[in-house]
Amino acid sequence: MRVLFSKRLFPLVALLLALAFEAGAQEAPPAAPRQADTGDALAQSLGGSADGPPILVRHLPEWEAAQGRAVYALDLPALRQAVPNQPVLEIVPFEGGTEAATADYGEAGRLVIVEFLTPQIAADADAAIKRRIDELRGAGAGVPTVYRRVGNYSVFVFGARDAQAAESLAGQVSYEKTVRWLGDDPLRFEKHNRYWINMSASVIVNTVKATGLAIVLCLGVGGLFGAMIFRRRRAQAALAESYSDAGGMMRLNLDEHASELLGHGEK
Length: 267
Prior knowledge:
Layout: H1 2-25, E1 35-37, H2 55-58, H3 63-66, E2 71-73, H4 76-82, E3 99-104, E4 110-115, H5 119-138, E5 146-150, E6 153-158, H6 163-171, H7 188-239, H8 255-266
């Protein structure tokens, strides 16, 4: 009975294995570009969280209003899909954790921010981008309205109808990065020493300022009261009766007795 059951089960198992092998051998569909809007890219971003868009999207000018039309890309195909027909973007390297964010700002153009992981990668990419822009300009091809490097960012503005607005838009991008020591800061003693020196110098300077201000205040108040008292006494003296040698004084007349005294003296 067991042998008969095994013989019946074996073809069914073989058929299932053949179907599974055939399904696995089929060509897998091509992977879609790693492009996502600000809601779907949160799990892929290095700085994003489930409560908000990626950090790079937050560095877009007026990002609260722009996040609805912003695109966050993690590879070159996604960036080229969001910003087509821009050959300068073909040389942007996306190796090593490069990210990009873009949004349309109307007459000011489409802003693209590409963030590189290290300053060295950013410097090499900046040099390559500038060479590519010079080549495209010499060939008469389209170039960005504005390009500049800001920290580890490469900032592009494409298709601007107002050059001044494009410059202003690119100028609103600032590179914000905080560097922290993973362990103990080896410069902490120097920082504390510098802090105490600066604080002591500040205390001394403030003390000297307060002392000088107090002296000036005392001299000013004392001079004011002294002048008031002096003017008051001078006014009182002007109203008082003036001194006179003959006026209102008692005179002792000794002329009559002088002769008698002199006469007794002669005797």
